[in-house]
Amino acid sequence: MDNSVSRNSYGEFGDRKEELVRSERLAFTGRIAASIAHEIRNPLGNVYMSVQQLRKGCAPDSPWAKHIDVITRNTERINFLITELLNCARPPKLNIKPHNMNEVLENVLDSLRTKILSQHIKMHKKLNAELLIINVDNEQIKRVFSNVMINAVESMPEYGQMTIVTENNENNFIVKIKDTGKGIPDEDIIRIFDPFFSTKSSGVGLGLSICYGIVVSHGGIIGVESGTNKGTTFTISLPIR
User: Fold this and answer.
1) Mean pLDDT across the stretch 154-181?
2) pTM for this entry
């Protein structure tokens, strides 16, 4: 990603007015999330506990057992969505410690290796040989890398190539995650980090919004370049403290 201003980029490459609008949307989402957590979680907890009691008194071969299981799964799903909404809306609490960033990336790739191989995706790594340790929250940054890589893999249902590049200068550690997938249309890319926006039929639209918040909370920048049938490149820049 070059230093020119592009309609297909965010962070320092984006327009400050768009950044302000995004911040206002996240603040609005935060207010909604707090209300949802209060108004829904308490009765949801009561539903869950009641269903668990019913499950204990229900024989495994009872015709009601499958209905109880459906209620349990969907109750857990609703609780998960509320948690994700809160994670999106509020700044994460960071546990900052020094970490080797190439090792962090390798760990994420190891966790996704089965998914990558099952879709016949070729991996190409260009990791900077220089040992670079920077201060980050390991679990939060792993979540960012994992989310972006999963999106890359899912954009290539069968065959393709994912490339991971790491670079650094005296101020920033830079990770580029590239895929050869279907790409993102221009009309979608300007909304890619917005809460509840998703191009997936089953997507909730909070994953990249959460990633955006995590990177910004580290003082970093996340950007994206793409185009229909041109693949996608996410660039994550983290300050070297």
Assistant:
1) 91
2) 0.71
**For 16-89, which CATH class?**
mainly alpha
Q: In percent, how much of the chain has pLDDT > 70? A: 79
Cα–Cα distance for residue pair 65/61, rounded to 1 Å? 7
According to the CATH classification, is domain 93-239 in 3.30.565.10?
yes
Alpha carbon distances (Å) from 81 to 37, 74, 135, 145, 163: 10, 10, 30, 21, 31
* Nearest in space to 219 (alpha carbons), one of 91, 83, 90, 28: 91
The pLDDT of residue 89 is 64
Read off the amino acid at residue 116. Answer: I
Residue 91: per-residue pLDDT: 64
